[in-house]
Automatic annotation (TrEMBL):
The active site is at H280, H431, H565. This is Thioredoxin domain-containing protein 3-like isoform X1. It comes from the Eukaryota. Residues 1-115 form the Thioredoxin domain. Residues 130-154, 584-650 are annotated as: Disordered. Belongs to the NDK family. Residues 601-613, 631-643 have a biased composition (Polar residues). Pfam families: NDK (PF00334), Thioredoxin (PF00085). Signal peptide: none annotated.
Amino acid sequence: MAGKKKEASLQASVTNQEQWEEMLATKGLTVVDVYQQWCGPCRAVVSLLRKIKNELGDDLLHFATAEADSIDALERYRGKCEPTFLIYAGGELVAVLRGANAPLLQRMILEELSKEKLVLEHGGERKVVKDDGLVNDEEEEEAPQQSENEESITVPVSRSYTVAIIKPDVVAHGKANEIIMKIQDAGFEILAHEERTLTEAEARDFYQHKAAEACFEDLVEFMSSGPSHILVLSQAEASANVVPTWREFIGPADIEEAIREKPDSLRAQYGTQPLFNAVHGSEDSDQASRELAFFFPNFSTASVKKQDGEEERVERTLALIRPDVARENREDVLAHIHNSGFSVALQREVILTEEQVRQFYSQHIDEDYFPALMKSMTSGPVLALALARTGAVQSWRSMLGPSDVNKAKEENPDCLRAQFALENEPINQLHGSASHEEAEREIDFFFPHQRTLAVIKPDAMEDHKEKILEEIHSSGFSVSQLKETVLSKEMAEEFYKEHRGKPFFEQLVELMCRGPCMMLVLTKENAVEEWRAMMGPTDPAQAKVSSPKSLRARFASDILHNSVHGASDEQHADEKIHFIFGEIDTDEKPNHDGTVLAKEQSGNTASENTVVSRSEDQNEDMPDDHHQNGDSHSSNTSSPQTGENDEHST
């Protein structure tokens, strides 16, 4: 809740036409985040805005959020999903930015604030701009065409895309056009193409996920040394995923490996050394989306149109399978879900306390059926799912049928609530969100944005660090804090103090002090469990059997040298993060599209002699029979915790 209070004080909330007009009358410069009710404001830039406000301390600079659904002046923004920022001065629109491009937004704010101060101090006219989202049909016909660099990129929602970069070394040697011809001959479609020289700041921001690598400064210098060609690629076949196809076409990042294993790849043909490897490709679809927004902030995705022309967009909804059906028929329900075109974006099995049930169903507490609902919801693990597809909320509710079980059986016997009704049980066994807004609130309840501590251990640093970091980013985690360090014996003993006195303790401490390790704070919905699952079981032999794609199955050599470490629960994560990094901001939450701006690393880190007083916790670095099993309930009862024990922990 603290994060929301800070955001409210930073950004004024504008939700109707009267407030909009009052905002326009504000003296100075106002940066407005225009959003749709179903997706909410762009939280990915809140830390940036706070940083700008704190550094400038300027009373002429204001921030606001504006809900397009309820403001007449923003009618043309309704139905759009890309982040949009309107900058007003003296009631006039002076700049527009689409996409969460933090460096560009910061530069625009500073430039426009400087211009507005000149206007207020010395008079003169403001340079007013128009935006397609605010002009009427007649004005649209008269609107000037966008310049090449302001091209609006439209990517059909059914088509995948990737960002490709032809790097400065290849451009300098006159090979760019040759590569572009090969790209087209290979069947790739070029949706956008721009020649651009990155500034040092842009290169640093674009490659911020590589900031911990030894070559980072050289990479930034190289990528800002001359013009690159930036391309957005797709494929003609709507079902094809262009990302792996493009990565296969360009070959491995290591030139020697590319020449040896993929001699026909672009990197084998045009690369000369690790940094000068000719071309870049997005790691996955999420990274492609972020990179597209970085280079082409005016991009948008085309909507799916129904027969009547009305637009639909991919959305999420919460589905709950209550304990009795989750025990007996979960696979049948999941089959119905998949066969109906839903994808399961998030999934977890949780045991709810009575207090959590009261919080989640607060509007039903006074109903006659609430005691039966309470009994049902606390009788065992509930399977919670975040489902995604176009029109997800309404589609799932249609599949569920009436909430009254008897009515469902009479009026729609084929609906899920009728099919999976229990004899002599008045409570239906499946839940669905009632609206877009309720869906996001409910998803946040069951899948709260969390942070967890991840450690790449010394035994994995030399050979596997880069691959592990790549997989962390490609799995949707945001790295909000990162440091590479060599632990002293005292720090390692304190870090693993819950194992002091156990037979393996000295070996574990010695291993962790043997060389550098990397400490990371990872942020994501359900981050603790997601990272635990990604690592796999503690014992690599067991991991190879039960989770062959996990990090430990692939990179660990034995139970001591098991590559990675992670917190066992949210409280454990907070305590270890505090020990390693000191006090850091925990308020930032990811944007609705999953992106988070990485925060600047805190300088307040634990010293070698830091002693953190805390209760004994579990640790997942040792075999299951070496540590105690127990609940992983957090002290925060506002969001449910998993009911599974911790024996296969991080």
